[in-house]
Design goal:
The chain is mainly beta and 465 residues long. It folds into two domains: 68 residues; 352 residues, 6 Propeller (Neuraminidase), CATH 2.120.10. Helix content is 11%, strand content 32%. It contains four helices and 27 strands. The chain has a five-stranded mixed sheet, covered by helices on one side. It has a four-stranded antiparallel sheet with strand order 6-5-4-27, with no helix packed on it. Helix 2 runs parallel beside helix 4 and helix 3 runs antiparallel to helix 4. The two termini are 30 Å apart. The relative contact order is 0.14.
């Protein structure tokens, strides 16, 4: 990664929005833009210059370069208000990084959803712990004056939306939705739905009357739930489900919880078929460029009960399953939310805990550098320790979306990562642009509800079948 050394050497700098231009829905986003100090001007200027050099490797920025030159000259004078100038430099740095050609898109998909009502990797995704939120939203003009459009406002009952995934042509989005109509939380279930990114074509895919939701041999020892969907190049879907009706071994008696494993179905939700027969849960499938499914898998057999949650791959028919990274790695204990970086063989992940939410530090894994240990890992957010194995961080990232090896969209909270059973605020997370220079630029915050799962509404190449 070209900029990883700079990331660890530079002071982490948070970018600030102009408070007159940050609209969150109908609310004004007021940020602490008056906090710059005179002694921060020189580091801010150095950071802006490094950012300009980085962006200009991909695109000339003559106007921004001239503006930075003017500010550098002002900083050299004795009569400059250095605190005020520092804030101006920070705002210019934001303009510079936003001018990168990989950010040349106007629409951004996000999910507006409170954190679950319980923090634990093997329990948080179940419907009983979900909390209701507005769901999917398209953010237009996200760099300047964001405008929000909720995709299914008033068209679904009150409920919770989880883990959206864009189709390769960026015209559809599949997601898991939990209807909160049942007053007993233990009867709430996630199933798969789909909608067009234009808000048209809303349809339910699984959990319909024709869907046989009983498990193998008709077992129904717990509720069937389907979540974590992703599109396959043969027009099918991969997802995880509790349909095997097997049991998570560390949950006992009255705390009985179903295991969830990798499944697939046709694009309309029919022909559901189990792909994995593991004995501990699996999460977050996505597609590699070669058409294989990459996902996170917990291995509980003959080893530590929670330190080994690593990255695996399989073909879309469930064959050729293999470890990609971390099968013998204790730190990080959970390599979650894997997704291949465009134009690279590397994988972005969230280094997360087991006894907490799926959140932590953003890492990049290079499988060609090794199958285990720290050597294949680059820490994109070195300010955040690996949860549980290195400590419990204040602040955490989740749902990273890679634009390149150096640019990522992600959700971030400044709150301490909630340990098992604790609950973070319903509005804990906001959307940020993260870069390996050390930039953390706030894009979108809703003061009422968390915003996660940022995805550019841009077509991607369809992998081979």
């Amino acid at each position: 990664m070209a900029l990883r050394q700079a990331s660890s050497m530079m002071k982490i700098t948070i970018g600030f929005l102009n408070p007159t231009r940050c609209l969150v829905g109908l609310a004004l986003c007021v940020l602490a833009t008056a906090g710059a100090r005179a002694d921060e001007l020189d580091p801010a200027m150095t950071f802006a210059r490094k950012t300009l050099d980085f962006v200009q490797r991909s695109r000339p920025c003559p106007a921004l370069a001239a503006r930075l030159g003017e500010l550098e000259k002002r900083a050299a004078t004795h009569d400059a208000n250095r605190a005020e100038l520092c804030q101006t430099v920070r705002q210019l740095r934001r303009q510079i990084i936003f001018s990168h050609p990989l950010l040349d898109f106007d629409r951004l998909l996000i999910n507006k959803c409170p954190t679950p009502g319980y923090s634990h990797q093997s329990r948080q995704y179940l419907g009983r712990y979900s909390r209701p939120g507005p769901g999917l939203a398209v953010i237009e003009n996200w760099k300047d004056q964001p405008r929000e459009t909720l995709l299914f406002k008033g068209r679904l009952p009150v409920g919770s939306t989880m883990h959206p995934e864009l189709s390769f042509d960026a015209r559809r989005v599949v997601f898991a939705f939990c209807d909160h109509t049942p007053t007993d939380p233990n009867l709430r279930q996630f199933f798969l739905w789909e909608i067009g990114t234009d808000g048209k074509g809303l349809r339910r895919l699984t959990g319909r009357t024709a869907d046989r939701t009983a498990g193998e041999d008709g077992r129904q020892t717990s509720l069937v739930e389907d979540f974590d969907p992703c599109y396959l190049p043969d027009d099918g879907l991969a997802f995880v489900s509790t349909r095997p009706q097997t049991h998570i071994r560390c949950q006992y008696g009255g705390r009985y919880f179903a295991n969830f494993l990798l499944y697939r179905c046709d694009g309309d939700g029919r022909n559901i078929r189990q792909l994995s027969f593991a004995e501990a849960p699996e999460w977050e499938p996505s597609l590699l460029d070669d058409g294989r499914i990459v996902y996170s898998r917990w291995d509980y057999t003959n080893r530590h009960s929670y330190h080994f949650q690593s990255i695996w791959v399989t073909r879309p028919d469930g064959t050729a399953t293999a470890s990609l990274y971390g099968n013998l790695t204790r730190n990080p204990c959970n390599s979650a939310e894997p997704r291949q970086i465009p134009g690279s063989h590397k994988i972005v992940c969230t280094a997360a805990a087991h006894h907490a939410y799926t959140a932590g530090s953003i890492i990049v894994v290079d499988p060609r550098a090794g199958l285990d240990g720290l050597e294949p890992i680059t820490r994109v957010t070195p300010e955040i320790v690996f949860p549980e194995t290195e400590g419990w961080p204040v602040g955490a990232f989740t749902s990273p979306w890679p634009l390149s090896e150096d640019l990522f969209l992600a959700a971030y909270t400044p709150e301490p990562l909630a340990k098992e059973g604790k609950v973070q605020g319903a509005n804990a997370y906001a959307i940020y642009l993260v870069d390996t220079l050390g930039g953390r630029e706030l894009i979108y915050r809703d003061p009422q509800v968390s915003c996660v799962s940022p995805m550019p509404l841009v077509p991607r190449p369809t992998p081979p079948v």
